[in-house]
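Give me structure tokens for this 149-residue protein.
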Amino acid sequence: MRIPPLLVVALMLLAMVPLAHVLPTTAMPDAARWGAVTFFGLVGAIFVLPAAISFRRAGTTVDPRNPEKTEALVTDGLYRISRNPMYVGFCFWLIAGAFAVSSLWLLIAWPMFVIYMNALQIPAEERAMAEKFAEQWSVFCERVPRWLV
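Here you go.
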């Protein structure tokens, strides 16, 4: 849990630029391509920003590297449909990035991010939440999926 998830996303987006030069590009009219970039970027923001605001309002940290600083378990707003709406939003930003560089091959970035998060980040976060919030965390996990489904 040493690398902030937003940094992981930023590095993946940066890596798309040189990869787009070696992978086949996807012919798409500019209007459609930038429409897709805008759409997926905005959908990502619709997940990330309200989720982060919910954390701030609850007086808890958005930095998952320091779970001991967590002051509250946020279960309202977008947290009624996903335990990780910020990460869902990051996936949409990765999709937007693939369209931005005109390489649908790079759509592989979002499932790679999900695999990375499921393997290296989320289990540690969930252990910390289970220790800190016990029964409340257990009930939350039963009601709300980790991602969207």
